[in-house]
Amino acid sequence: MKFISLLSLILVNAGILTGNSTPTETAIRWVSKSKEYQAICQQTYLSAWEKVKEGAKQTSSPWAVVMDIDETLLNNSQYQIELNAKNASHSQEAWEAWVNRTEAKPVPGAKAFILKIRGLPNGRIIFLSNRFARNTEATRRNLQKYDLNEENDVFLLRKDKADTKANRQREVVAGSGRMSPYIKMKILAWFGDAAHDFPDDPRLKWGSQKFMLPNPVYGNW
Ligand SMILES: [Mg+2]
């Protein structure tokens, strides 16, 4: 028995076993430390770049990409690490305090992707996130720290609880509601880390118009 505990201790220290980590802690560690997480994100953004570059070349009309923010552009694992350290769980209050600190780091590959698409003509970025609209300024500041935001980007954040992503996706596709002040744009790609970040439209294909980033920490699954 003693030998087994000693062996486990050695394996934990060597990083081979995870000790008594909860599944959430393991997921957070994967996001914050693994090379695999970084590779998947970079792979997604690199293949998205090829598609968007091609799409932009083939259209003469104004176009846009629609991007979720959390765990798509910004990595909030530090928020999760701090919650865990305090033995606390996610709450709207804790979340907004974190958002207003503007300390989230970019998801690997996101910055390079955004800088490249800024170089293509007629394009725009629409940030479609469930962050509340009252946090737009803090969100903008956080994105600006990493050159992810420019003046003509569109922020389509949540007005209130009833304002679902599907609602705002419809406005984007139709150019209606909050999108009506803008010239109609062809949407070349959608980015997210959750199923609800993408419109329910069978014509949109994974790896062509829809690009998923990995998020093992939270979701509706
Ligand atoms: Mg997200």
Count of discrete domains = 1
Hey, roughly how much beta strand do the residues contain? 15-25%
CATH architecture name? 3-Layer(aba) Sandwich
CATH class: Alpha Beta
CATH superfamily, by name, is HAD superfamily/HAD-like
Unreliable segments (pLDDT under 50, ≥5 consecutive)?
A: none
Q: What general form does the structure show?
A: globular
What fold name stands as the CATH topology?
A: Rossmann fold
Mean pLDDT: 93
Cross-sheet strand order for the largest sheet: 5-4-1-6-7
Largest sheet: 5 strands, parallel
Named once each, the bound ligands are: magnesium ion
Whole-number radius of gyration? 19 Å
Q: Report how far the terminal alpha carbons are from each other.
A: 38 Å
Structural class: alpha/beta
Instruction: Tally the helices.
Output: 8
Beta strands, count: 7
Sequence of secondary-structure elements: HHHEEHHEHEHEHEE
Give the helix proportion (percent range). 40-55%
